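In the laboratory, one determines a bound structure by crystallizing the protein with its ligand and collecting diffraction data. In a computational setting the workflow is compressed into a single prediction: the sequence and the ligand go in, and a structural description comes out. We illustrate the idea with nicotinamide-adenine-dinucleotide.
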Amino acid sequence: MIVGVPRESFPGERRVALVPAVIPTLAKAGLEVVVEAGAGAEAGYLDADYGAKGAKIIPDRAEVFRVADIVTQVLCYGSNDRTGKADVPLFHSGQVLMGFLRPLGSAETIQEIASKGVTSFSIELMPRTTRAQSMDALSSMATISGYKAVLVAADTLPKMFPMLTTAAGTLTPARVLILGVGVAGLQAIATARRLGAVVSAYDLRPAVKEQVQSLGARFVELAVEAKDAQDARGYATQQDEAFYRRQRELLGKVIAEHDVVITAAVVPGKKSPVLVTKEMAEGMAPGSILVDLAAERGGNCELTQPGEKIVHNGVTIIGWFNLASTVPYHASQMYAKNLTTFLQLLVKEGKFQLNTKDDIIRETLLTHGGEVVNARLREFFSMPALATKEEAQK
Ligand SMILES: NC(=O)c1ccc[n+]([C@@H]2O[C@H](COP(=O)([O-])OP(=O)(O)OC[C@H]3O[C@@H](n4cnc5c(N)ncnc54)[C@H](O)[C@@H]3O)[C@@H](O)[C@H]2O)c1
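The predicted complex, in structure-token form:
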């Protein structure tokens, strides 16, 4: 079977789906790799490196799609809402597609992919289980975003992060607050600590308190308790407006005490909760920085301009998207490892096997045989259930 790696087409995207190092592993599973010329260049992986590991380089993008039994991308049509549509005519029936598809974004888009007869896998829907951990690309990208958010903040802050005692006096350390302690938040804590900042963090899931403290940060406790804070998959649940209002009241004072606030609070499939209102941001000292990692989903700060950096009353608010793409070498390395592990599960002795009894395969499978077959997605978009389970699995 042939695995195709087209060049990413989303403007500014620098990652690539597979890196040369994984090609021998794929070959062992009976998979040949074809790469669109230049696909890894922006991430630091040259055509010659792919060639040296046994991949074939093809200059024509359409040809990559034509020969590939399995297409691997970072941003597939769905998550690539700018240029992804151009790939649709290149899909062929029976082809497998995997990557970020933003499954809860648009029902029409997923339907369009289904209508091409493509068997698509949304890497965002990877279950949060121990067995799936090495295939969890969301965690890989969140790790990089959390790290980079701190560097962006440190670079913009008119202060140093560490405490220094010098002949010219003592410099106090920067005070950093992380709101939302998932994978990105944890990495942000670790990175800010390494730079010498004094770090505090808050999450509505009390389960993270220990993790925060183990990284040397203070856990901020608010006098408001979330109802069923965490679902069975470990994600935060949506709370009512009274909770969010009380949360904001209590957070206002905490935020004002910090030089840097990094927000990474997300509820899957929902608009991000507003944790920092305009007034709260205005309460921060001039020169302070807020990096909003939830910007793509509406933002955790009311003033965030998605995709932009603005200065409001002397406070810089950064709502850049896709920070993982700004560290493309390691982001691609991690992503390629995640996809390769997933491919090893799907392809046995060179044959693609759609074993929907496996929860990893079943939960990530979006479309097959012309239909949207993912039960969670059908429920989310209020689509009628498929006639029988057997039909869905054909
Ligand atoms: N394989 C695995 O077992 C596995 C893999 C990845 C993540 N996880 C766990 O899953 C959990 C979610 O991680 P994630 O990075 O995907 O999270 P996420 O990106 O969905 O959300 C980020 C954080 O925002 C928090 N949040 C949401 N609303 C909030 C609010 N109003 N106030 C404060 N915080 C709020 C969430 O609790 C979460 O910690 C974590 O505990 C993580 O360790 C487990």
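The chain has 13 helices and 19 strands. Keep in mind that any predicted model is a hypothesis to be tested, not a measurement.
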